[in-house]
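>> Question from a student workshop board

For tomorrow's exercise we were told to take the sequence and the ligand below, predict the bound structure, and bring the output to class. My setup keeps failing. Could a helper post the expected result so I can at least see what it should look like? The ligand is thiamine diphosphate.
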Amino acid sequence: MQRTGESVEYRDGYTYEEWVHAPFLREGRQPDIRDPRVLAWLIRRHGLEMTHISHGSHIGAIFSVAEIMAVLYTRVLHFRPQDPKWAGRDRLILSKGHAGAAVYAALAENGFFPVEELRHHYGDGSHLSGHVSHKGVPGVELSTGSLGHGLAVGVGLALGARMDNEDWRTYVVLGDGECDEGSVWEALLEGNQFGLDHLIAVVDHNHMQSLDFCEKTLKLEPLEKKWEAFGWNAQRVDGHDTDALTRAFQLACEHTGGPSVIIADTVKGKGVSFMENDILWHYRTPQGEEYEAARKELEAQRP
Ligand SMILES: Cc1ncc(C[n+]2csc(CCOP(=O)(O)OP(=O)(O)O)c2C)c(N)n1
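>> Workshop helper replied:
Here is what the output should look like for this input. Compare the format with yours to find the bug.
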């Protein structure tokens, strides 16, 4: 990382980390990041603050994937923050790379780099680019942002692990609009052909893409049946239910003989009433009264 993550005042006498953690600190406790509901809340709260500071986009996409990322980082992935390149780690690719703030937040909260770094997201001199980047950011496996490539890389990683008799798994998180890309379906064919049972995909199925609903753009339903037809073991779950997601990952890990997908039904903008299911919040940045209203709503929901 280029910056040092120095603790300086950010707002109202708080450092950036204290400002985001404030609802917990006011109660005399620290957030328990091993609880997926707490980590999901932190991902949303950082996502709001980071897009607010940077005037960045994609808050709706960050909010829809929060529980998926939180369950991965609390219940599923094997990783070592002090040894990010540990050979036995599971590999995670966020193929919908525009939601990179969700990964950065999860990594910082888990100690891969200082939480204070998050305030420089999208800023000059920071490695925390808007679309997720592995350059200079410990814990990120692959830079993404051009949609449709993550699953093919995931196939290659899973195949390589198999050839090396390695036991780690590869996880790839895609958007549903991203599934419009033909390259996704080529990767599905390959994952099936090679019988990659250590490859698990998750589709953040928020039913929206950048400018409209998926079904009004390019019809995807019945999505799990399409993945099944391509030979994948498919499950469909509530993508905001951390217990349901945990169980789905367990079942996917137990499946042998071929790859698995979890189609996670989610809500774009989940967590802030006026952002939910409103396509405006794909690109709109939270500022002024909208930022304050969103912050109050999130703070009222802290677990
Ligand atoms: C190859 C490519 N084409 C277009 C874009 C522009 N783009 C950025 S986000 C987005 C919508 C993605 O929708 P979805 O995969 O459903 O993700 P969501 O934001 O809904 O989570 C598009 C089209 C891109 N990043 N890459």
